């Protein structure tokens, strides 16, 4: 053992002793080792592999059902607040335009579709607070 601060013979500062860049002393790769391929893993672990494939198929089926199962909500004068709340913003604005065309301006004079949407949202919030979302239509929500 060498004392602290002394240098070993043949070793320069910052380098490890007896370490070279040569690969001469490296053990050869064992050609009999297991091959890690997907096919080999499935062959060795059939039950686990079948379970993983089944889970993957289930995940894809759930995602596709969510994408394909979404239905379009059409908002009309007789739609309830529950229907209104499940409509997209695009459908809500489309109804706002339709309402202005068919009924004219709101009682406050607002003729914008966004104003109609805001009035319905305010009325439907009150309906939800009173547990009447299935009974109140969007036209009733506008009128308060």
The N- and C-terminal alpha carbons lie at a distance of 92 Å
Number of strands: 0
User: Judging from the principal axes of the Cα atoms, what is the shape?
Assistant: elongated
Strand content of the residues, in percent?
Answer: under 5%
Largest sheet: none
Rg from alpha-carbon coordinates? 36 Å
Would you tell me the overall average pLDDT? 82
Overall SS class: mainly alpha
N-to-C order of helices and strands: HHHHHH
Poorly predicted ranges: none
User: How helix-rich are the residues, as a percent range?
Assistant: 40-55%
- Give the quaternary arrangement of the chains: single chain
Number of helices: 6
Describe the structure.
- 51% of the residues lie in helices and 0% in strands.
- Among the domains are: 42-68; 81-143, no CATH class.
- It has six helices and no strands.
- The longest helix has 23 residues, at 46-68.
- It is elongated, with a radius of gyration of 36 Å.
- The mean pLDDT is 82.
